[in-house]
Amino acid sequence: MDYDEMSYRILALKYRPQTFDEIWAQDHIKETLKRAIEQNKIGHSYLFAGPRGVGKTTTARILAKSLCCVKGPTINPCNECKTCQEIAASRNMDVLEIDGASNRRIEEIRELRENIKYLPTSARYKIYIIDEVHMLTTEAFNALLKTLEEPPKNVVFILATTAPHKVPGTILSRCQRFDFRKATVDEISNRLAWLTKKENIKITPEALYAIARRADGAIRDAEVILDQLWAFCPEGITKESVYELLGIVPSSVFEEYAELLASSDERGLVEFIDKIFASGYDTIEFFAGLIEYFRSLAMLRLGFDAQTLELLPDEFTRRTKASQRFDSETLLIIISTLCSTEEQIKRSLLPKILLEVVSLKLAKAMKSSKANSPNLNNHQDESLARIFKDLLSHLRTKKLPLASRLELATPQKLEGDTLYIQFPKNHSLNRDHFEANKSLAEAILSELIKRPAKIVSELKETALDEQGKSNPQKAENEQLKKIGKVFEYEEVE
Ligand SMILES: [Zn+2]
């Protein structure tokens, strides 16, 4: 975030969770901690690991209050006693918050070890919250380790870090570790919806979602963004104002690009890129958004749903439609090409030309892949081919001769519950055999499409068996057909 965070922290501070129940999206952690407090099984050292802005320090303070509250130890600190209030304001003598980044030298840890010898002045426990603990120097870690090895009674260490892999194993092994996760877009937008209702902030659901997505799992960031938007748009926050303030490129821009690419419109792409650069979008922002967009198309082709992809219903519909303009392989080529260009774009003095070149290359690739595969843009055909392939491979394990007969046929369409297939004209005998024994194939197909299915076959009018001579796959099928003849007796039912 490049704007001044500090001046927009009013909401984040006002709604900072004060009890375990108010902690958002970290259920597994708060339940475990509550149980430990209730059963009086407090450890000597905890490690809170996780990305920034997900509530590590907040949870550490609540744990400190729970242990030190005059009515405690309790899972519901009163938040009213002197101790609770001092801890909330970070000025309790017995709950020390140390920033690992600025107190990373051995001297500071030595001082801490000296300090530990003294009993808590007023509270029940002495609690050390060391933030960004991975920043400590090796010497400081060694000094800390000695303390963790022989912890004085009633001392609790809470080490917080965004980079647990940088914390020495010797320290990790002495801590009870909690991994804080990023909040989902849904969780963040629910939190923001609750908060805006409390504060009477007018905001549209799309705007909430856009903020939640930008916050990338950090609830605190989302609250800071909301605060800033509220200051700029006191009369009401819309999706457009979020996009404008945060420099987010709207989805429709990527849709337009994808459409031009799908139709290999080279001239259109160049004009589009010119328009993008003229409209003042941040190049890197645009490029990252483009990669993200094509990734979502690829995920949609794999059958992921709107919730998993964190898409709004409208976006889901539009992108599903767009995804059908590309086959999975082409999408992978587009994504990997864009990804490998990202670094160059960031460094380039001529990002526009680079983007033009990449786009034209992709458009050319689209053109040639379309020429190679007439079904490129047809989702229906692709899934038909897949079902037919699955049917064959299942059938092969059950009845090879029947499978090798079916292999001679070409799937035409899957309409409702009926699969239509076509045998070459000169394979009428094979077709007859298939027809006589097709119930097994129909049973397998029913399982595959999860509803009762039929297979209807016909003979193709023009003979295509000439192809068999040049096509190794067909030649192999001929071979299988012969094998089928040998096993003929198997097919008698
Ligand atoms: Zn209290």
TrEMBL record:
Its GO biological process annotations read: DNA-templated DNA replication
Species per Swiss-Prot/TrEMBL record? candidate division WOR-3 bacterium
Identify the CDD domains for this entry: AAA, HLD_clamp_pol_III_gamma_tau
Q: What class of enzyme is it?
A: transferase
**What keywords are assigned to this protein?**
ATP-binding, DNA replication, DNA-directed DNA polymerase, Metal-binding, Nucleotide-binding, Nucleotidyltransferase, Transferase, Zinc
Recorded hits in NCBIfam families, A to Z, give: dnaX_nterm, PRK05563.1
Subunit record text: DNA polymerase III contains a core (composed of alpha, epsilon and theta chains) that associates with a tau subunit. This core dimerizes to form the POLIII' complex. PolIII' associates with the gamma complex (composed of gamma, delta, delta', psi and chi chains) and with the beta chain to form the complete DNA polymerase III complex.
Protein family membership: Belongs to the DnaX/STICHEL family.
- The AAA+ ATPase domain sits at 42-184
Give the highest taxon in the source lineage: Bacteria
Reported function: DNA polymerase III is a complex, multichain enzyme responsible for most of the replicative synthesis in bacteria. This DNA polymerase also exhibits 3' to 5' exonuclease activity.
Q: Which GO terms describe its molecular function?
A: ATP binding; DNA binding; DNA-directed DNA polymerase activity; metal ion binding
Task: Look up the EC number in the record and give it.
Answer: 2.7.7.7
Q: Which reaction does it catalyse?
A: DNA(n) + a 2'-deoxyribonucleoside 5'-triphosphate = DNA(n+1) + diphosphate
Give the GO cellular component terms, alphabetically.
Answer: DNA polymerase III complex
Quote the protein name from its UniProt record. Answer: DNA polymerase III subunit gamma/tau
